[in-house]
Amino acid sequence: MPSDTIDSPGNYSDDRRAKPHTRAPGNRNSHDAVKNRSPICGLKSQKQGLHEDDNRRDVASRMDRSRRHVLTAATLAFALPWASVARAESIGKADWVHVIKSIRQLQLFRAGHVLKTYAIALGSHPDGTKLRLGDGRTPEGVYSIDGRLANSAYHRALHISYPDPADIARARAEGANPGGAIFIHGLPANFGRVDLTSFPRDWTNGCISVGNIAIEEIWDAVDDGTPVEIQA
After folding, report:
1. pLDDT at 200 over 90
2. Which CATH class is domain 30-231?
3. Averaged pLDDT for residues 119-125
4. Where are the domains of the chain?
5. 55-58 long-range CB contacts below 8 Å, 24 or more apart?
6. Cα–Cα dist 9/62, whole Å
7. CA-to-CA distance for 177 and 168, rounded, in angstroms?
8. Which residues pair with 97 in a beta bridge?
9. DSSP tag of 165
10. Which residues lie below 8 Å from residue 152, measured CB to CB, with a gap of 6+?
């Protein structure tokens, strides 16, 4: 299983066997934080407490289902009118990323003006903010880009700084693990140079998916430290 796989298409909300994990206090190097993130969006890496012996078969089964879903979706993308072939364009630097879950859009802003808008797909349970590990939800709140993966299984990936202290405190109050490994990322290699003008379904485990050309543009436009507002 690739070490930088972020999330996978389908509805995987039952991660009850993963043990709770609490982030260590203090700031960490963003590169170290990102490289130790989960191989599946919303799950933790082995270093973060995922017990491989207990979960190997479960994760392998999920990845097998993921590949089947991806191939089906790739076929649809090439065949249906919501797919378009384009080239990445230079749009300059953005100073704010605004995600609007209700209309499935990601907007890049500079100085209060929209630079460009992209179609997105969300977690498989898109309503409401993320509360715990494995709930299939995309967080809501104001975060920042705190790292990136250039060679992700989903083309490129920008890590979002979830969970923040408020997220951790809310999860602890419920006796839950807040989860993590939330990224803005592209699509699997099967999709090639094709972007979707709208997604036929929400398919991630909590990440925000855009097209492969879109993630290249966002990657170039957004520096580490750029705020990301995720709105219901």
Report:
1. yes
2. mainly beta
3. 96
4. 30-231
5. 55/17, 55/18, 58/17
6. 9
7. 8
8. 108, 228
9. H
10. 4, 5, 6, 183, 185, 186
Residues written for the chain: 232
User: At 154, is the secondary structure helix, strand, or coil?
Assistant: coil
* Residue 153 near residue 221, CB atoms below 8 Å: no
Bin 56: left if φ > 0, else alpha if -120 < ψ < 50, else beta.
alpha
Q: Please give the biggest Cα pair distance in the chain.
A: 50
For 111-196, list the strands marked E by DSSP: 113-119, 141-152, 155-160, 183-185, 194-196
In the three-class reduction of DSSP (H, G, I as helix; E, B as strand; rest coil), residue 150 is classed as strand
**180 contacts 44 by C-beta, under 8 angstroms:** yes
User: Nearest CA to 65 among 169, 205, 193?
Assistant: 205
Say what the pLDDT of residue 191 is. Answer: 83
Q: What is the pLDDT of residue 140?
A: 97
pLDDT band at 196 (very low <50, low <70, confident <90, very high): confident
